Amino acid sequence: MNKREKVGEKTIYYNSLSIEARDILEKIKNNEYVMGKTLQKKDNREVRLLTIDGKKYVLKRERGRGLIDLIFRTTLNNVRKLKEKKFNNIYDVEIIAEKRRGMGVEETLILAPYIEGREPREGRDYNKVMESLRELHSMGYFHGDSKPKNFICNHEGAILIDTKLKRSKFGVGKWKDVARLQKRTPEKLDLTRYFGDYRKNIAYYLAVAWVYKKELFRGVRIYQEVF
């Protein structure tokens, strides 16, 4: 069960059943952490390492986008549900915090343990990615942003990170994952091995149209690359 607590200007949401989440919250309230190096910095996002009691975490800070940030609370719920179903190839989102201004969200922060590994870069890595996606899809969810840099490969397989983690309706979400992964991957993937005969599924073509909509509007031929 998720709970929320007010800490300064921020409302913090956390899994009340997680001992680690409760401990982290206390450490944060008492400023018992060390902020580390910056892993990524963009206009609307910053990702930094954070250390608590010698353990490394990743803190992602994003500029608010109004009520749309409610999606992050849904992510916290869905991560918990998938963990309960023994789907372990996903990052543990321990805490989500929001700084609100009126009805809107000014800033969102997501804290998760740091995962050792690397981005997928060769055939066997992408096989692990597709195995993780197939298992996720079988549980009725999809990644939502399945580009290679949103997976970490290690001895446990391909771990999903930075995921929107939504419920898949009518199967289109699943095929968006497949189309996005193929679009962002430098090599041709054996999609049939993991996702069956996708060419016979109308939802796949709807997903391709969505993922490649900018190219289609510009009149770019995408058929050879995708099909």
From TrEMBL:
<dbReference type="InterPro" id="IPR009330">
    <property type="entry name" value="LipoPS_heptP_kinase"/>
</dbReference>
<dbReference type="InterPro" id="IPR011009">
    <property type="entry name" value="Kinase-like_dom_sf"/>
</dbReference>
<protein>
    <submittedName>
        <fullName>LPS biosynthesis protein</fullName>
    </submittedName>
</protein>
<dbReference type="Pfam" id="PF06176">
    <property type="entry name" value="WaaY"/>
</dbReference>
